[in-house]
């Protein structure tokens, strides 16, 4: 990657520095001073990370072994692995949770290849020296800056169930009135597909930019050589482009799969007032939030959180595995 | 043969790009047009795209509708979002760059351990600490403090600064040090001014993430007097019956600040995203 070049700063020649330090002689002195300074400089951020990430994370694990409820007069009681047993095997409680896991999995299995493939296609299209290519890049990237809460609302209109909905009336026009009005969000069969489409629309620009940077690292000579060999475009793609961005591609795919397990905003907004089918689209995070917030069941929500984290870590470790060999050669 | 095909190919490229871009931008176009049309003409099939009866009435109506203690005030939602984003971005630039400098350019015992800790914490997504944080800070609900402070220290920002500072040649610091500047002075007077690119891309990335923040406000904020814009978007769109013109006008106002930032600084932004990811 083009490492951002620091500006060629002139060595500061300050007219009046601080009073010249008499102890300018030895290294050990400076290292000693550095010790305190380095620690002091790092302290605020590290303290913040420990307070707001490290401790809460450990606390989540602890809470998941207790029966804790918010606003309950009862003292928290130790629960062992009961929360986890309930999540996975209790006939009353495991239903929504396992459904959420399955939904998340479905979402990931569809979105990862779809979004990565689309991003790669766009990146290749945009990796040209054409006039105005920058404008096209911006257009495809633009949805990334849209808050998900807004994206959900826009698509709520596009997918509205009445025959006045944008997609419905477009289908109506195309089929000469033969296709009825679909309830895209409310119908369990299409609800998840709707969430997938709007999520890909919002997110694909992000992956595209990363892949574009990867493509630009492939030396142009490789393509010139392929041209000389009269290799058709498809061959160039297979033998030059794909090997050249293999590492980036794996990275993007894994990043997308981690992101796809974090899905929450759009599902929450559309279930609360958008008529989205709840059971077909609830995700693991949605489940954690409703368990903590609507049911005040902190212990159970923490257990969901821990399961969520284990999935994300597993995906991250797989990513490391897959990316590393490529970095070495 | 190749030469005769070139213009044709170029034309095909433009055609494909143009069609794709058009489809891609349709939802944004619909948002813009809808926000300017009378509410009953928005959800109206394909005619929703016709620019009929355009006016800014919906914008005035939003400001009018969100103008009491029970509904909250529009400018207050906006103010809360801006304030929280400001605190997170400026506070974050300060503490994270300082920490990264301490960990990359000063030599002290234990710095490797501390940096490893930062890298490990980078793996913990916010989602997996949201529930315990919600429980720990339950008495801080509905404050600006709890919306902003947990997000100031950011492991990923530290990592981005760290990567950049590491690439600065040591001779520059040596010169400053020989002039008698201590590490603090060296950092603020020499390193910071020459690190504008990384400050810009971290700032913009942080702002973008913060502006759309939704999960945390859902858990922590119920009082309209401290509610940020995206959460209000969710509340506002849930009203019955929905007033589509107003909802879309609200949406435009929600995305406008971040679009402006994007339009002016997109180079830094795209560079920041791409470089961090490719290096990652």
Structure in words:
The complex is a heterodimer of chains A (329) and B (280). Chain A is mainly α and 329 residues long. Chain A folds into two domains: 37 residues, no CATH class; 233 residues, Orthogonal Bundle (MetI-like fold). Chain A is 68% helix and 1% strand. Chain A is built from 14 helices and two strands, in the order αββααααααααααααα. A two-stranded antiparallel sheet of chain A has the order 1-2. Chain B has 280 residues and is mostly helical. Chain B has a domain of 191 residues: MetI-like fold (Orthogonal Bundle). Helix content of chain B is 71%, strand content 1%. Chain B contains 13 helices and two strands. Chain B has a two-stranded antiparallel ribbon. In chain B, helix 2 packs across helix 13 and helix 12 packs across helix 13. Chain B is globular and about 70 Å long. The two termini of chain B are 43 Å apart. The relative contact order of chain B is 0.13. The interface between A and B is large, with 119 and 118 residues.
Reading the helices and strands of chain A in chain order gives HEEHHHHHHHHHHHHH
CATH class category name of the largest domain in chain A? Mainly Alpha
- Class by SSE composition of chain A: mainly alpha
Q: Report the CATH architecture of the largest domain in chain A.
A: Orthogonal Bundle
Tally the helices of chain B: 13
Distance between the termini of chain B: 43 Å
- The proportion of residues forming helix of chain B, as a percent range, comes to over 70%
- From the alpha carbons, calculate the radius of gyration of chain B and give it in angstroms: 24 Å
Give helix % range of chain A.
55-70%
Q: What oligomeric assembly is this protein in? A: heterodimer
CATH homology-level superfamily of the largest domain in chain A: MetI-like
| Largest sheet entry of chain B | 2 strands, antiparallel
Number of strands of chain B: 2
Poorly predicted regions of chain B: none
Largest interface: A-B, 119 and 118 residues
> Which structural class best describes the helix and strand composition of chain B?
mainly alpha
Average pLDDT value of chain B? Answer: 89
Kindly, what is the distance between the CA atoms of the first and last residues of chain A, rounded to a whole number of angstroms? Answer: 16 Å
Order of helices and strands of chain B: HHEEHHHHHHHHHHH
Q: What is the class of the domain at 74-243 and 259-279 in chain B in the CATH system? A: Mainly Alpha
CATH topology-level name of the largest domain in chain A: MetI-like fold
């Amino acid at each position: 990657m083009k490492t951002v070049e620091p500006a060629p700063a002139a060595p500061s020649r300050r007219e009046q520095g601080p009073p010249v330090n008499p102890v300018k002689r030895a290294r050990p002195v400076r290292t000693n001073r550095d010790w305190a300074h380095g620690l002091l400089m790092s302290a605020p951020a590290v303290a913040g990370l420990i307070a707001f990430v490290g401790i809460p994370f450990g606390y989540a694990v602890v809470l998941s072994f207790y029966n804790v409820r918010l606003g309950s007069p009862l003292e928290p009681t130790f629960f062992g692995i009961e929360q986890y047993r309930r999540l996975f095997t209790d006939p009353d409680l495991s239903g929504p949770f396992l459904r959420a896991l399955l939904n998340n999995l479905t979402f990931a299995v569809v979105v990862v290849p779809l979004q990565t493939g689309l991003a790669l296609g766009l990146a290749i299209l945009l990796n040209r020296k054409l006039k105005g290519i920058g404008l096209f890049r911006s257009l495809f990237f633009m949805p990334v800056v849209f808050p998900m809460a807004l994206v959900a609302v826009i698509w709520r209109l596009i997918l509205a169930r009445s025959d006045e909905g944008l997609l419905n009336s477009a289908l109506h026009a195309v089929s000469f009135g033969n296709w009825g009005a679909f309830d895209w969000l409310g119908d369990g069969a299409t609800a998840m597909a709707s969430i997938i489409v709007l999520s890909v629309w919002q997110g694909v620009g992000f992956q595209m930019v990363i892949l574009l940077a990867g493509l630009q690292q492939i030396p142009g000579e490789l393509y010139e050589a392929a041209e000389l060999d009269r290799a058709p475009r498809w061959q160039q793609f297979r033998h030059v482009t794909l090997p050249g961005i293999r590492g980036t591609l794996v990275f993007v795919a894994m990043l997308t799969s981690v992101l796809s397990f974090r899905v929450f905003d759009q599902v929450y907004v559309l279930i609360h007032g958008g008529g989205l089918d709840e059971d077909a689209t609830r995700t693991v995070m949605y489940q954690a939030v409703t368990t903590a917030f609507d049911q005040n069941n902190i212990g159970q929500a923490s257990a969901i959180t821990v399961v969520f984290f284990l999935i994300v870590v597993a995906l991250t470790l797989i990513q490391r595995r897959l990316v590393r060999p490529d970095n070495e050669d | 043969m190749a030469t005769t095909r070139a213009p044709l190919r170029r034309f095909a490229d433009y055609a494909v790009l143009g069609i794709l871009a058009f489809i891609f931008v349709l939802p944004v176009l619909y948002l813009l047009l809808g926000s300017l049309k009378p509410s009953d003409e928005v959800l109206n099939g394909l005619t929703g795209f016709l620019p009929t009866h355009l006016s800014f009435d919906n914008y005035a109506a939003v400001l009018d509708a969100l103008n009491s203690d029970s509904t909250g005030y529009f400018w207050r939602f906006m103010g809360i979002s801006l304030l929280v984003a400001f605190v997170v971005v400026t506070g974050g630039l300060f503490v994270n760059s300082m920490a990264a400098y301490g960990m990359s350019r000063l030599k002290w015992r234990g710095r490797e351990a501390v940096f490893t800790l930062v890298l490990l914490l980078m793996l913990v997504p916010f989602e997996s600490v949201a529930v315990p944080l919600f429980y720990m800070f339950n008495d801080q609900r509905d404050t600006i403090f709890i919306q902003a402070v947990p997000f100031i220290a950011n492991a990923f920002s530290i990592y981005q600064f760290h990567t950049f500072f590491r690439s600065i040649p040591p001779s520059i610091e040596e010169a400053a040090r020989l002039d008698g500047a201590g590490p603090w002075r060296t950092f603020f007077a020499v390193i910071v001014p020459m690190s504008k690119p990384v400050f810009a891309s971290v700032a913009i990335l942080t702002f973008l993430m913060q502006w759309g923040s939704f999960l945390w406000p859902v858990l922590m904020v119920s009082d309209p007097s401290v509610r940020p814009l995206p959460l209000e978007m969710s509340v506002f769109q849930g009203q019955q019956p929905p007033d589509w013109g107003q909802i879309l006008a609200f949406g435009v106002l929600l995305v406008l600040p971040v679009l402006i930032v994007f339009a002016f600084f997109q180079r830094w932004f795209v560079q920041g995203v791409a470089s961090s990811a490719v290096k990652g």
